[in-house]
Amino acid sequence: MLSRLAAHLVPFFGRLTVTADPGARIEPGTIIVANHTSLADPALVLAALRRRLGAEPVLLAAAGLWRVPGLGRALSRDGYVPVHRGTAHASAALDRAAVALASGRPVLLYAEGRIPPRSEASEAPPEEFRTGLARLAGATGATVVPVGQAGARRITSGGTVKQIAGVLTAPLRRPCLHVHIGAPLRLPEDVPAATALAHGAVTEAWRTAATALGESAAGTPVAAPPGPGRAGGVRRVRGRGRRRAGA
Q1: Which range, 75-79, 88-92, 168-172, is most confident?
Q2: What is the per-residue burial (b if ≥16 Cβ within 10 Å, else e) of 82-106?
Q3: What is the pLDDT of residues 100-138, one digit of tens each?
Q4: How far is CA 96 from CA 64, 100, 107, 134, in A?
Q5: Which residues are within 8 A (CB) of 210 and not within 5 positions of it... i.e. 6 or more apart?
Q6: What average pLDDT is seen over the chain?
């Protein structure tokens, strides 16, 4: 339901365009990983995935959203997974995500684990990834689809007052927004290498999206994350078969 709602509401707040790599697809049990820049970007990504590929993924989101009246019930109804960051329950989100993947549902997560603490609305490359994505992919054998979004901070960013003002004025401004969907890939079993490679793939997808909006940050060199087997270790998925867990 929330994916459909996002698809209807996002055009009211901005002008969304979507591109995809050749062969981009969301198969059952796929992990989708996107860059996180704003409270608005989950709606952009959900709308883009539904528009371009007809996908309605389970979203891993901050547990605090479940305390918002009415929203928590809607999130639970769609099977979304609360993430209790910084607590002993944080790892439980990956267990629930694995169950969703096993049932054939795609799962959308944000490997940065937070919105960057910046006040300006301009774009910046994705921050360092946490290891949850690599561990989930390794445990389930799921393919990973990198997604880059740009423009969400034009809707809302910065402190509370600025965020509210951005949302209220967005329907008048209707900023340009762009989402780019990458081709599915397999991550190596080594967690640091897998994390670095996934970060690189999302960064490239983000760069494509930011370039589409004419963002100057798209041309900024990004330091290579540590870890062996950098870009050459990404295995793009050519067939439709899935790797079994532990393979």
Answers
A1: 168-172
A2: bbeeeeeeeeebbebbbebbeeebb
A3: 999 999 999 999 988 888 778 889 999 999 999 999 999
A4: 17, 6, 10, 15
A5: 123, 148, 150, 178, 217, 218
A6: 86
Distances (CA, A) of 238 to 94, 115, 143, 242: 27, 33, 11, 11
- Could you tell me the pTM of the whole model? 0.86
The alpha carbons of the chain give a radius of gyration, in whole angstroms, of 17
pLDDT at 2: 82
Is the CB of residue 85 less than 8 Å from the CB of residue 64? no
What DSSP string describes the chain?
-HHHHHHHHHHHHSEEEEEE-TT----TT-EEEE---STTHHHHHHHHHHHHH----EEEEEGGGGGSTTHHHHHHHTT-EEE-TTSTTTTHHHHHHHHHHHTT--EEE-TT-S-----S-S--------SHHHHHHHHH---EEEEEEESHHHHS-SSHHHHHHHHHHHHHH--EEEEEEPPPEE--SSHHHHHHHHHHHHHHHHHHHHHHTT-GGGGS--PPPSSSS-GGG-EE--SS--PPTT-
What is the pLDDT, as a whole number, of residue 220? Answer: 65
- Rounded distance between C-alpha atoms, residue 185 and residue 197, angstroms: 10
HSE at residue 149, side-chain half, CA atoms within 13 A, is 27
Residue 228 confidence class, pLDDT cut points 50, 70, 90: very low
